[in-house]
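Pilot study result, target chain (950 residues):
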Amino acid sequence: MQPFLQLVAHDLYTKIGNDLSRTVLVFPNKRANLFFNEYLAEESDQPIWSPAAMSISDLLQKLSVQKAGDPIRLVCELYKVFKEETGSRETLDDFYFWGELLISDFDDVDKNMVDADKLFSNLQDLKNLMDDYEFLDEEQEEAIRQFFQNFSIERRTELKEKFISLWDKLGIIYHRYRENLAELGIAYEGMLYRNVIEQLDTDRLKYDKYVFVGFNVLNKVEKEFFQKLQRAGKAMFYWDYDLFYTQRISKHEAGEFIKRNLIDFPNELPESYSDIFRKPKKIRYISASTENAQARFLFSQTAQMGSEKENAIVLCNEALLLPVLHSIPQDVQNVNITMGFPLAQTPVYSFINAAMELQTNGYRPDTGRFTYEAVSKILKHPYTRQLSDHATRLERELTKTNRFYPLPSELKKDDFLTILFTPQSNIRELCDYLLRLIKSISILYRKEGEYDDIFNQLYRESIFQSHLKINRLYSLIESGELSVRTDTLKRLITKVLTASNIPFHGEPAIGLQIMGVLETRNLDFRNLIMLSLNEGQLPKAGGESSFIPYNLRKAFGMTTIEHKNAVYAYYFYRLIQRAENITLLYNTSSDGLNRGEESRFMLQLLVEGPHEITREYLEAGQSPQNTLEIQIEKTPEILRRLYRAYDTAQPESVILSPSALNTYLDCRLRFYYRYVAGLKTPDEVSAEIDSALFGTIFHLSAQLAYTDLTANGKIIQREDLERLLRDEIKLQGYVDQAFKQELFKVAPEEKPEYNGVQLINSKVIVSYLKQLLRNDLQYTPFEMVAMEKKVSEKITIQTALGPLTLRLGGTIDRMDAKEGTLRIVDYKTGGSPKIPANIEQLFTPSETRPNYIFQTFLYAAIMSRKQPLMVAPALLYIHRAASESYSPVIEMGEPRKPKIPVNNFAFFEDEFRERLQALLEEIFDEKEPFTQTEDIKKCAYCDFKAMCKR
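Predicted structure:
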C-alpha cells in the first residue's frame, strides 16, 4: 500500500526539487502535513527546504485584513442591527440562539458568493423576476418554482406574514451587519473569505506555488480562489479519489464533486494511481449489541494487526472515546489520539454546572433560600469536599434534618462555603463568582511532584480552559456587549464549555491512531477499524437548521443536506480505498436516537462493491447466575445480639414492636437485616411524599386537631366537631404545622414552602381530616382517652437458655371511650380492609395476611390488662370512610359465611396470646434460622432486595 501523501511527496519532489521554500501546501486540515513531511524526508538523503503548510482556513485568514470575530460578540453585533432595522422589542435572550442561526445562513451566503440582494429580495419580486435570472441553471430554476408552489404568497397565514416581513428586512440587515463588522475590523468566517477573494491580487502573493492537496467539496469562495491562482500559474492540484466511484459506478455520491473538480482543476498525479479500490481486501462487518461492547472487542483485534503505525481506529460516534481509552491494553506502546478530551467530562465542568444550577434554579430570591437538591449536589462534589472540611458534615446534617430550603446563613460554615453560598443577583456577579470558584479549585493542583500524573495534567488544563472561556464572557459583560438574563448566561456557558475539547499531546506520526471521521482526510492506513458505523452516525442524521428555505438554498447554489451526504460518502470510500484489512462495527440496539441500523454506506458497499464481505456477530458471553438461597443460622453471636436488643435484663434493650413482628412473619431474613444486624436505608431528603410520610403527616394533623378540641376537657361533643369543620383556615393550619414538623423541619412560625405535588398532598390530607371529623360526628359524644400513646407490656417466654422477659409495645394512634368500651383506633390512609378467617391467619405468612389487624390486636391485648373497660380494636380507613354504611369495626369469619364483629377483644385474647407466645419463642429458638420469604411479591419494595438479588 502506497499512501496518497507519499505519492504527493514523491511527485512534488520530482517536479520542484530540493528547494520548496517558495511553495506552500494547503490541506483541508492541519494533521495531513505531519505525515506529509515524513514522506518528503524519505525522498532525499540531502537536507531539503521544506514547504510551508497550512489549512485552507489559515491561509485565507492570513490573507485577510480582518480578524475572525468572537462568536458571542458577533451575535451581539447582529442583535443591534436587528433591533434598529425591525424595531423589534425582542430581548437578546430570545434573539441569541436564532441569531446564531442567522449568522450561519449569512456565512453560507458568503462562502457560496450568493448575490444577497437577489436572494433576500421581496418574495413577490423574486417570483415575478424569476425568468430574468440567467445565472440559474434548469435544476436551480425548478427548485425556485417548487418553492413558490409550496409557499403561496396569496394565501397568507400569521406565520407566513411574520416570515415575509422578516425576509424583506434580511437584505438590509445583511448589508448593515457587514458594514458594522468591517468598521470594527472583525468578520464572521464567510465574510472574511469573501472579502479576501473579492480583493485578491495574485501578483502580491507571498509564495510562488500553492499546492492544494486532497480537497473534495468546494464552496464558491474556494473554487474562485483556486481559479484565480490557476490562471496566475501558481496552483497545483492533487486529488485523492478512486475510479470505482468516479467512473465504474455512474452517479455515485462519493464521486459527485471530485468529478467536477477533475474537469476544472486537472490532477497532477496520473489516473493509474487512482485505480486501487479493486485490489484485494479483507472486509468484515461486525454487529454488536451495545456501543461499549465494540470498544471491549476492539483490542482483541489490534493484537493481530502488526505495526502500530499502520493501524487506525475511527470513531463515528466520538462519545466512544472514553470506553476505547479504558480498553487499551498495556502491550499497546504508542497511541495518538486526534480528538480532544471533552471538557464536559471533567470534574471542573460538573462543578461549574452545579454552581450555576445553585445560583439560578437552586436559589429563590423571593424567600432568600436555596433548594436542598442544588445545595446537596454541590456539597457532594469532590472539589467542595477537598476545599471545605465542613462539606460532608453539613450535607449529612441537612439530610438528617430534612432541610428542603436552607438559608445561606446556615450553609456558610467556612471561607470557601461562604463564597459558594453567597447569592449572586446578576450576570456580572455570576461570572465573577464562577471565576473565583475556579481559582479556588486551581489551588488543589499546585502541589509539587504531581505534574507527572496524567489526570492532574488533564484536570489542570480543563481548569485553564474553563477560566479562559468564562473570562471571555466576563469581558463581554464588562464592556456592555453582552446583556442577558442569568438563565441565558447559564445556557451560553454550558454551550461554550460543552463545545470545548482538551487536546492530547503526543507524536502524531507514530503509534496507533484513534481518530474522528474528519481527522482521517488525506490519511491512509493498512488496517482500519471503524466503530459505530450506524445510520445517523455516518452520515450524520438530519440537516442543520436554517432560516433560508431548502428550495431557495438549492436554487442559489448554497449548501444542502445532499452536499453533506456526498461529503460523508467521500470520506468513507476514500478512507477504505487503500486499506487492506477493514473491520466495520455497528450497534444493533435501538436505544435513544440510535435506530440499530447499519450505515447506508455499508449496505451500498455490500451491493456495489467488488469485494467479498464476511458478516460476524459480537455477543457477550452469557453466564446466568443462579441466585443462592440465603439462610442465616442463629449462631451464638447472633443470639447474643438478639438478647442484647430485647432482653429486659440488658440495659440497652428496646421494645419489640408490632412492625418488627409483622416483618418477621413477612420475611424472617428482612427481620434479621433490620432488627438484628441493624441495617438501615441511608437518610435522604426527598420532595416526594411516600405513603409512610403521608400517613405520618395525617396522624400528626389529627393529633393537633384533637389536642385543641380536648384543651378544656376530654369529652368530644357534636357541636365541637361541627364548629371545627366549618373553620377551613384552622384545619389547613393543623396540616401546615404537621408538614413543617415532619417534612420541612422548620420552626412553627415559618411559612411552609410547598411545591405543586406537596400542595396537592396538603389538600388531600385536609380532606381526610374533614372525613375523620365527619366520621366522628356519628360517634359523639365520646371521651378522647389518648392520642399517639406509647404502650408496652412485659412478657416472659421459655427459651433453650431459660426464661426470657421481653417488652412488647408501640404507639397507639388513638384511644377513645364510650359506654364502657375502650376503642383502640388505628388510622389507615391507604390499603383496603381485610377480613381474617380466624386468629391463626394473623400468624400464618401469606400474601393476604392482615398485618394491620395483627398490630391492632396486639395493642388491644396490651390494653386489656392495663385498664378495666371492654376493649374493641378498630381500623379506620380514612380514604374509604365517606360511605354512610362504613364502619371501622373489625370483623372475622370464613369466606361466604356470617362475620363476627370484634366488639369485645376478650373473646379472642387467649388464643391470640397463645399464638403470640409461640411466635416469640420461635424468634428466639436457636434451631430456627432466618430464611427468605417464599412470597416473591414481598420483595418488590424491600430495602434489602439488592442483597438477596431477587
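One observation from the pilot: Residues 158-184 form the longest helix (27 residues). A full batch analysis is planned for the follow-on phase.
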